[in-house]
Amino acid sequence: MSLGYIVRRLLGAIPLLFGISLILFTIVHLAPGGPLDVYVDNPSVSKEALDQIAKAYGLDQPVPVQYVLWLKSMLVGDWGYSIRTGRPVLSEIVLRLGPTMELGGLALLLSLLIAIPLGIISASRRGSKLDGTLTLVSFAGISTPVFWLALLLQLLFSVHLGWLPSAGYKSIGDGSFPDRLAHIVMPAAVLSLATIASWSRFIRSGMVDVLNQDYIRTAYAKGRGERGVVFFHALRNALIPAVTVIAVDFGTVISGAVITETVFAWPGIGRLFMESMDGRDYPMLMGLMMMGSVGIIVANIVADLTYAALDPRIRYG
Amino acid sequence: MTLKLTRRATLKGMLAGTAAFATIGLLPAWAQQKGGTLTVGLTYEIDTMNVYSTGFLGDAQAAVVEGLLAPDKDAKYVPVLATEVPTIENGGIVVSEDGKTMKITYKLRPGVTWHDGKPFTSADVKYTWEAVKDEKFIAESKDGSAEVASIDTPDELTAVVNYNTILPTFASTLFTFGIFPKHLLEGTDLNTSSYNETPVGTGPFKVTEFQRGQYVVTERYDGYWKKAENGDALPYLDKLIFKMIPDTNTLITQLKSGEVNLVVQTPYSQAKQVEGIDDIELIKGPLLSWQHLDFNFKRPSLADIAVRKAIAAGIDRNVLIKAQGGFPEAIKSPVVPVFEFYDPNTPEVAYDPAAAAKLLDDAGYVVGADGIRAKGDEKLSYTFMVQAGRADDELAQQVIIAQLKAIGIEATADNKTGVAYREARYNGGYDLIYGRWITSADPVYSVFWGTGGANNGQSYSNPTLDAAFQKFENTLDPAVRKDAAIEFQKILAEELPTISLTTNVALIAKTKKLKNFVPNPTNMTNFVDTAAWYME
Description:
The structure holds two protein chains of two kinds. By secondary structure, chain A is mainly α. Chain A is 75% helix and 0% strand.
């Protein structure tokens, strides 16, 4: 694993990003509607006023010209202005990034801390009642719609028990650690549920494969106890396929955040995306999606590097 | 009407009670209480607190920023920062001798201060016009700024607005939206100013915290100018909080858990759920928007009054209402019943499919082999446009298509969105169009059906109607306006360039503890009179 490899991978991502940006720009403009649709019922917003607003945001230009203009300013680090709020896209995104990192980070941590042990237990007790139960629960978790689970949790913990706030980032005038913890528990639990369920399945099947290998039998033969075999010999090898899934799932976490953040009124990137989509806020949508693309590319590079760390036989150079 | 009476009666009862107790030195706890926090749930994210550039109706803004006038619960203008609504009778409006321009004098309320304690003066009024008019300022509400030629400020409490035309709708434009504080904004860039998040106004509440995507906290402004009738300092509430909760299920959950106490835009689909919540009551408020079916007069058969009348008789509004959850209300005039200009005697075409069929038979439209009527080459087969993606409109469209089919008229959905929809609507790229308009409290109708009106994509032209609109929109005398309104409503109902179908209601879910809340139908929102609200 060398620095040269990382640099090469990052350079390779540049043409990829150009391609992605072109596709995204096209798709965003293909979607029906436009940023000025909010004024459609209001007769006092005249055609002239609409034309003037369109001109101010360059919406009067043909789409290919708009793309070139957008690309030009993006290349010099100007992300443009949000049509909805009139504020710079970059500062809006930076403002929303913090809450999303907190939520996504906690969800990721929860997922790993729960999924790995679950997968190991399932695999090492394969065929047992416990394994069967965990399998059932996992599939239930994968199949549960996020918004429905969120609603149930809100009804239980906020309306009936009154233990947790049903939505929001912090209480007004508070924002202490316990207050923020109370706000983040439900969205993080909801966001991590699907990933816990699917990751534990991957870790389980990875473990099952590995536990049937010859070198595991050898390890038992040389007198190692079960715990040692499972954690020292098997887990590292079983994690390699799981890492791929986790990296690929980075995108799922982002898209899951769109729903979770909207349901829980979490002021993050996902919610900003939803609002921008509703208002067809083109500059904001492009900024958000480009950032997401960069995130996914980076996650993939990190995954490749993690392979090498987990398996000494894998070398990049 | 009943609402008004009971409210007044209740208030009187309360005042009497207060007085009685006060004489023996015991103020009852149930009188208008000072204090308390009201948390409002908004379904949208506040984009900017600037009333001139927000893409939404200014809910939170109305509690903070005041204009010279404001529409009340009956959509009538009342003075706010002005001491009276200018009229010809009180000398506030003076029309030039040639009758082409007018001069409006606003007497400003003395003793009004901005939230930073500085006095509000006529210089602020003049600056507001200059700032809104400025081309560099991006805003969609520049209404009424181009019609002003100049503003004189002879003294601190007098603003004389010289118009370059006659603008009877002056009250629904510029100065009603809000006044900018000159001393804080002059020389700044309004597009990027911090005013857009923490505006300084003269209203009962001042913004103390704006958290993008989360909430806006407003607190009682102790220096507020208005006093209650009984002399109480206003506002009563300590805090008014606006929380932005985009998901309507979550919003209802917050009502249930008590985290939110007022929702002014309860979706029709959630009404049932809200009715089951203790301590929350659901009240209906009228809205100034209405749904209509319009015709393109370029189609020869649609220019035929018999066909339009048949279509009007073929549509059952009750089905349309049921399809939309039972909440909209049937109307017969585009002037919705809230307005004093509404004429209840406007003629009406009743639902009667048999009469519709007879009308078409008599006019020579014969049912063909495919069940569709035709007269010569002109087949009664139309393209029918609504804005694509609007579930309610698409549903109504399907209902109308089915009802027209029953009288032998074929309509085919041809829905568009965005620029395509707008272009088609302005240029008449449809045969039938179903849509919705929202007016201000001071509506203008010539833009819809006047010859060459900005929103008249129907190619409809009727000189008699134009004359009635002209009289209504260019006269300042209320009696003349009332007559003109009756006349144009009658013409519209008889000539049917448009069929007015339904008007909407706002479903407001509020805590029963909140008193003095009166729904406001106008685009100035329910938050125009927050000073008088109090919590029991």
